[in-house]
Structure formats: C-alpha cells, structure tokens
Amino acid sequence: MSHQTQEAKIHGENSIFSRIQNYLGEFVYGGIDGSITTFAVVAGAAGANLESSIVIILGFANLIADGFAMSVGSYLSTKSEKETYQKHKEIEYWEVDNLPEKEREEVREIYAAKGFDGELLEKVVDVITADKDRWVDLMMKEELEMAEETKSPIKMGAITFLSFILFGFIPLVIYVIDYFNPLGYNLFLISSTLTGLCFVGIGFLKSLATNTKRLKSVMETLLLGGAAATLSYFVGDFLEKLVR
User: Fold this and answer.
1) What is the CB neighbour count within 10 angstroms for residue 2?
2) Sign of the torsion angle spanned by Cα atoms 226, 227, 228, 234
3) Largest CA distance in the chain
4) 27 part of a folded domain
5) 76 is in which domain, residue-wise?
6) Is residue 29 part of a domain?
7) Total domains present in the chain
8) Which of 197, 196, 190 is nearest to 173 (CA)?
9) Which has the closest alpha carbon to 30: 223, 231, 205?
10) 103: in domain
C-alpha cells in the first residue's frame, strides 16, 4: 500500500470517527433518558405488583411517547440555535456594509485588548477587514461570542430517538420474552440486572463524550438510575396499598 493510500485511509477513518464523536453526546443522553425513564416505569409497576402485560403496555407507551418528545425537543433546540446564529450573522453583515467605520473600531478594540498596538494593530485591522466573510466571522466569535452549530437538526432528533428506543427497551426485554414464553423467574430482578449493565455501558460512553473519568461517569449513571427506580418502586408500592 502506497504512502498516499495509507494517508487517505487514515484520513477517512479519522473523518468517520470524528462524525461519530460529533453525535456521541446526543446518543449517550438519549440512552440515559431512555433507560432511566423506562426502568422507572418498570420499577413502579413492579412495586404495584402489576402483571407483565401491563408492564409492557406502560413501558412501550413511555418508550414511544417520551422518545418522540425528546427527539422533537432535540430537533427544535438545534434548529433554533442555527436560526439564531444565522439571524445575528445577517445583522453583522448589514453593519459591515452600512457602518464600516464603527465595525473597524470594534475590531481595533478587540485586538488592542489582546495586546496589539501601533502599526501592528493597524495592519491586523486592515487584514481582517479586507475580507468581509472573515470580518463577520471574527465579530461573531469575538464580539457576540457565538459559535456556529454544524450539526444537523434532523440527525440530532433521529439519533436521540433511536438511542432512547434502543436503551429504553432493555428494561422491558425480559417482560416481552416472558409474555410469549413464561419463564417463572423473578422478572424484576432480571430487568434490574440487565438495566444495571446498561447503565454501566452508558456511563462508559458518557465518559468518552464528556472526557471525564470512566469510573466516576459509570457510578453517577448507576446512582441516578437506581435513585429514579427506587423512588418509582416505592411510589408504586404505596399507591397499590392505598387503592387496595
């Protein structure tokens, strides 16, 4: 394999990995919400001693409805960020066209604050303002402190939904199996074990997305998921006794 071919292959692999990393955060947080909220439903149903068929109905209702709501929220949030950025960018272009001296002075102030002065400062201002696109990009970053959102709103929503469904199904899978082929085991215990392993996996992925310590990320996810499930279980148990 030639040197150029190897470089192209490495570049392609890095590009794919980079694209995956761009959406890893949405995948992780969709998975966290999916697994925690669905397991909370399962725990509440278990605390109320509901039948497997009811657990399945409640679980899937939560899975689809909450997953869709999360994906819509992710889509609208990303879309709003892109629209807000574009709106302010158009304003900056207008100001560069109609108030060039004012905008040049703002560029001068920005670089003066960075330590530039005298002839060097003027040269920097001249270089920046010689290109309108570069000028506007600078004002967006330095004056407005806004960064352009490059992620697709549709992809953000789709990844959030798929992740929510994928991880959220794990607490329900043993109930689905039992419905079609009764197992005679403690379904809630098995669901808890599977969900615990799911939390460990999500916690590991979360550490990659946030660049935090793996053990800390795993323990945080386990703690939050366990707390939500415990609360739901005792609420279900309390309500079951209340209406008995």
Assistant:
1) 7
2) positive
3) 85
4) no
5) 35-243
6) no
7) 1
8) 190
9) 205
10) yes
DSSP type of residue 244:
-
For residue 243, what pLDDT is reported?
Answer: 63
Structure confidence at residue 17 (pLDDT): 42
Per-10-residue mean pLDDT of the chain, 244 residues long, equals 46 47 81 87 84 89 92 92 94 94 93 91 93 93 88 91 93 91 85 88 84 85 80 73 66
Q: Among 51, 57, 53, which Cα is nearest to 240's?
A: 51
Q: Residues 162-194, buried b or exposed e (16+ Cβ, 10 A)?
A: bbbbbbbbbbbebbeebbeeeeeeebbebbbeb
Residue for token pair 């392609």: 12
DSSP assignment of 7-46 equals: HHHHHHHHHHHHHHHHHHHHHHHHHHHHHHHHHHHHHHHH
How many residues are listed for the chain in this entry?
Answer: 244
What φ, ψ does residue 178 adopt, rounded to 5°?
-65, -35
Through-space distance between the first and last CA atoms of the chain, rounded to whole angstroms: 74
Distance (Å, whole) CA 154 – CA 71: 9
> CB–CB of 27/205 below 8 Å?
yes
- Per DSSP, helices labelled H in the chain are 3-47, 52-98, 100-113, 118-129, 132-138, 153-168, 173-180, 187-210, 214-243
Rounded CA separation 228/38 (Å): 10
